[in-house]
Task: inverse folding
């Protein structure tokens, strides 16, 4: 297995140091994911930019959480599921939503379930989604803009999920209480 360095502001490539400083300012620490991504400054910068763009999408905090966690669970990301559990708590997302996403059980509203279903269709179909799935999403009250914003969230999560799989990124101490394993 290849070992990846968990960089800090001193060990990171020069181009990543300011990016890690931004992470530390925003979160009070350098998350392990960012420490790994720092090896490739473009990856870390791209991830941070996509994160900002997705947070500023037309989705509310519950919907952002549904997109993120649906992808994290589908991709069995040992790091991101706990991380986004903590983020959801910080954003004030109802624990019932988080638990339903983590456990792949029904969400509390049909609208959120439609968002999970569409996100799964995007991920599983690699963007090849049939008209019925699109129609169901739109009929649930979502928009064409939000179809494309699910792709934005997917792009962000591919970057983090795949990095964590390859690097086996250790779960940050603050998120260890939310440890998760995909059900069989």
Result:
């Amino acid at each position: 297995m290849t070992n990846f360095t968990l960089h800090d502001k001193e060990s990171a490539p020069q181009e990543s140091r300011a990016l890690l400083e931004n992470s530390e300012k925003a979160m009070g620490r350098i998350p392990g994911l960012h420490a790994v991504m720092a090896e490739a400054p473009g990856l870390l910068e791209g991830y941070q930019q996509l994160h900002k763009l997705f947070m500023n999408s037309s989705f509310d905090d519950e919907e952002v959480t549904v997109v993120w966690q649906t992808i994290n669970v589908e991709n069995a990301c040992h790091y991101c599921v706990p991380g986004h559990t903590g983020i959801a708590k910080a954003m004030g997302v109802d624990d019932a939503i988080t638990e339903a996403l983590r456990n792949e059980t029904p969400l509390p509203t049909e609208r959120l379930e439609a968002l999970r279903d569409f996100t799964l269709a995007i991920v599983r179909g690699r963007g090849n989604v049939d008209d019925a799935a699109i129609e169901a999403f739109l009929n649930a009250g979502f928009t064409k803009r939000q179809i494309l914003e699910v792709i934005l969230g997917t792009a962000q999560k591919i970057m983090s999920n795949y990095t964590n799989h390859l690097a086996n990124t250790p779960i940050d101490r603050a998120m260890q209480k939310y440890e998760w394993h995909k059900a069989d």
